Amino acid sequence: MHDVTYLPGFDKFVITASRDGPDVWGCADHAIGVAEGSLSPIEAAKQAITEFWRMQVNGPRWAHLFDEGLIESKTANVWADEVWCPPEEETGEEDDL
Questions:
Q1: This prediction's pTM
Q2: What angle do CA 64, 66, 69 make, to 5 degrees?
Q3: CA angle (65, 57, 15) in 5-degree steps
Q4: What is the spatial distance between Cα 21 and Cα 91, in angstroms, rounded to a whole number?
Q5: Which of 80, 27, 72, 10 has the alpha carbon at shortest distance from 51?
Q6: Which CA distances in Å does 46 have to 13, 39, 62, 89?
Q7: What is residue 68's three-state secondary structure?
Q8: pLDDT tens for residues 41-97?
Q9: Which of 1, 70, 75, 86 could form a disulfide with 18 if both were Cys (CB 3.0 to 4.6 A apart)?
Q10: How far is CA 67 from the centre of its chain?
Q11: Residue 97: other Cβ atoms inside 10 A
């Protein structure tokens, strides 16, 4: 689960992720990113989550959303596709058939 929290004194959003337990990094919740307060909560979440995923792009693709809230499963999967399945660059040449 991810949470988007606005910090008014800093005009920033902090995006946190929750895990099943503290066995990975010693805590169940940890901050994965910060975004400008001028963004919408969804834009802030996308920015932080996709940047976090890009740091892990050589690992396995994110796979599960256990609970929908601000972000629906369909949206999360589109974001994951943007990170793990970037569109192929066009060469400008047409294939001859």
A1: 0.75
A2: 115
A3: 50
A4: 47
A5: 80
A6: 12, 10, 14, 23
A7: coil
A8: 999 999 999 999 998 878 888 777 777 888 888 998 999 999 988 666 655 555 555
A9: 1
A10: 15
A11: 3
